[in-house]
Amino acid sequence: MNDKHARWLALYTLCLGNLMIVLDTNIVNVALPAIQGDLGFTPTALAWVVNAYMLTYGGFLLLGGRLGDLFGNRRVFLGAVVAFTLASVACGFAPSSGLLVAGRAVQGLGGAAVSAVALALIMGLFDDPAERTKAMAVYGFVMSGGGAIGVLLGGVLTGFLTWHWVFLVNVPIGVGVWLLGSRVLPRRRVAAVAPRLDVVGAVLVTTALVLLVYGVVGSALPYVAGGLALLAVFVAWEAHTDHPIVPLRLFRLRNLVVAQVVGALWAGAMFATFFLSSLYLQQVLEYDALAVGLAFLPTSVVMAVFSLRWSDKLVLRFGPKPPLVAGLVLVAAGLGLLARVPVDGGYLVDVLPAMLLTGIGAGVALNPVLIVAMSDAAPEEAGLASGLANTSFSMGGALGLAVLASAATWRSDALASSGVAHAAALTGGFQVAFGAGALFALAAAVVGGVLLRTPGAQPAAETEPEVEVAAA
Q: Which three-class secondary structure string do you get for 27-55?
């Protein structure tokens, strides 16, 4: 196998591993009623099937990225895939609600490490600008399309099989990713000196993020306040320690910071969109699990087409900023259409056009935002930059879902208390949430368009010579 084919096989392996992680943010949603019936979850406890995963995933992203920089991204990736796969087995065969929630928490730990180092490994594989842009388009599809694919796959597996398979489907994928990754992922020598991990900083930032995610998903303001206070302590510690887990100078990298803000706003809109639109289809239009999954199929297809066929060409032709802004505007337009869904809506008229616009916009925009997020980071800190980018997406998604779901509930309760019928009250809540999501996406477009600094477009025919990795 020549070097080019090896690089692309390594990319597909990394993307498959990351797809397995991204799927788990949404694949469970459609199966929740079946899980509740089998394991006897209370309505309050059922939320922890989702929250336990988000809690550990969001809390350990930065630590996972730093571990990759210190001990080798390849080693951390393969170990995390093993942990995630074993946790998936435990979830699939969980005999009780407590064991399922514990398994989901371990899944979050493994998923955080996989996501934190995958982007850094991809950036190290491709030096040529044109090839790197194409590779990032593939990775962008996984990130942007994973949510829609998760709803689709969750509906199909729950409809044709049982809820256990939304977890067990990870097992053959995880085994395949580990076997391929062991063969094709490049080995990079880490520093000859013993790596020094900022233990105090790692504990502070991980605890702070866990408290923040817990406070956000549980609407518990004291935990949010505690998380913010610990973040302030963490920043003070990082400013004075000799070996910081997050060097504060990274936050002088304008593109990295702006990309984090854009990613957080956009993820807030997208996470809530997949969650709330599946609820609208189930609770208002009375779709079953399989029908909900199939309803997301067109979104997955258009995301794939525009991520894999058009996004890289647009970046090479115009640079990252124009397609980023245009894609986010399309996402905002799609969510604006969803804000008009009626109580007696039809899928083809009221839902599908909005989903297609959202899918096109997401397929176009994520590749550019990932490129600019990683563009200023030094190679030895790529894992950390990747962890920062993923943390912003995770925290933005958790915060956006909490805010928009709360807005939907508030509006629905207000309408119901005034005598509006149940389905109409639910629809009114969804309309408010979709409208707020459109504002999130529009704000992301404005921030990216105004504040991002990007180099000029690279013509597709021009490439830089490959840079060889120097031996230690």
A: CCHHHHHHHHHHHCCCHHHHCHHHHHHHH
Q: What is the DSSP letter of 320?
A: S
> What percent of the chain is helix, strand and coil (3-state, nearest 5)?
80, 0, 20
For residues 314 and 336, what is the distance between their CA atoms, to the nearest angstrom? Answer: 25
Domain boundaries, the chain: 3-187+245-451, 198-244
Neighbouring residues of 311: CB distance < 8 A, sequence distance ≥ 6: 137, 140, 323, 363, 364, 366, 367, 368
Q: What is the DSSP letter of 375?
A: T
Taking the C-alpha atoms of residue 355 and residue 323, their distance in angstroms, rounded to an integer, is 19
Q: What is the CATH number of domain 3-187+245-451?
A: 1.20.1250.20
What is the rounded CA–CA span in Å between residue 452 and residue 322? 11
Does the structure show a pLDDT above 90 at 395?
A: no
pLDDT category of residue 180 using cuts at 50, 70 and 90:
confident
Q: How far apart are CA 98 and CA 76, in angstroms?
A: 28
- Classify each residue of 173-189 as buried b or exposed e, where b means 16 or more C-beta atoms within 10 Å of its C-beta: bbebbbebbeebbeeee
- pTM exceeds 0.70, yes or no: yes
Single-letter amino acid, residue 147: G
